[in-house]
Structures are given as C-alpha cells and as structure tokens.
C-alpha cells in the first residue's frame, strides 16, 4: 500500500512539474521573426532539458546543426539524434555572411521519420529541435509542422545562445543557450546519434 501511495505521489509531482514546463517562459509575441515557427511552440534551453527529462523516451530531441558544428562545439547530453536542417556547401561562398553557403538538407524529413519509427514514436509525439541559436531550429520546426507533426517545439536560445550586444562579451554567444545555462553537454560523441550520409 505504501509503495502504491509513493508511486501515485511521484506521478502527481511529475505531472505538476510537466505542467510548469509546458507553461513556458517564452512569450510567442516576443520571439524575433527569424525564430518564429508555424506551431508557436517555444522552449528555452532549460525548459527543453526539463521537458526531455520529464518525458524521457516519449519525446524526441533533435539537434539540427551540421555534424561539423557538433564535432567542434559539442552536443547536449539530452539529444537523441543529430539531423541537420541545413548542410554546408563547401563549393559555394556566402558573400553577405563571409562563410560557406548552407543548403537545405533534402533528407531531413525522411531521417526524422526513420528515427521516430525506430523509437516507436509518431507524428503526435513530442519533438524538440535545437540548433546553435534558434534560427535553423525554427525552420526545422516549421517544416515538421507542415509535414503533419503536431507537437513540435523549437529551443529559442539554442545550444550556444545569442550574441551579447555590449559589455565584455560583446560579439560572443554568451547571453543564453544550453552551454551558458550550465546544462550537461560533451565533446564525446556517440556514433549512433550522429548524422551519417
């Protein structure tokens, strides 16, 4: 009987914690245009970590950065898979951004679908997408929504966060984000999580 009471209490606490996570700190009206999604579902990195922890395998967390970004900058421990939304095109140069061009990953939706099938999830399951700072994850979230996914969240501050506009960290990604929040991450990558073409 005591064990059953304990399980019931744990379930109630878990549900109340989940409600707090779903309430959200992010006001959709304040999300910059480049980070807006069709679903209007936004999470901070801290909320994403809490949601993933609360839902466990019932949620899929995808890092949509390029494999090179992940290799050199690290990966959040909570991420289930890397599926790039955009890929670097090393044959073309972006004059405006002074970097290599990026092109949409034509296999993005197919790879997400494959991962969901392997994990027993479906288009109604929770999907959390994260990139460097929230721009690409918004595009990925909107693409998933257009494809019929009904519970997609974009991490608005991303893995590295936004750039500081002033102060000692001006021009650095030091404002928010997974790494700056002190959430668990590593440079040690797992092959089964990485995007292999």
Percentage of residues in DSSP E strands: 15-25%
| Sheet with most strands | 5 strands, parallel
Helix proportion: 25-40%
Return the CATH topology.
Oxidized Rhodanese, domain 1
How many separate helices?
5
CATH superfamily: Rhodanese-like domain
What is the strand arrangement across the widest sheet? 1-8-7-2-4
- General form: globular
Q: Number of domains in the coordinates?
A: 1
Mean pLDDT: 90
Explain the overall architecture.
There is one protein chain. The chain is α/β, with parallel strands linked by helices and 197 residues long. The protein has a single domain (26-193), classed as Rhodanese-like domain (Oxidized Rhodanese, domain 1, 3-Layer(aba) Sandwich), CATH 3.40.250. It has five helices and nine strands. It has helices spanning 2-23, 45-55, 67-73, 108-119, 135-146; strands at 42-43, 59-63, 75-76, 81-82, 86-94, 99-104, 126-130, 152-155, 185-186. The strands form three sheets. It has a five-stranded parallel β-sheet. It has a two-stranded antiparallel ribbon with strand order 3-9. Strands 5-6 form a two-stranded antiparallel sheet. α1 runs antiparallel to α2 (45-55). The radius of gyration is 17 Å and the shape is globular. The N and C termini lie far apart (53 Å). Mean pLDDT is 90; it is low at 1-21.
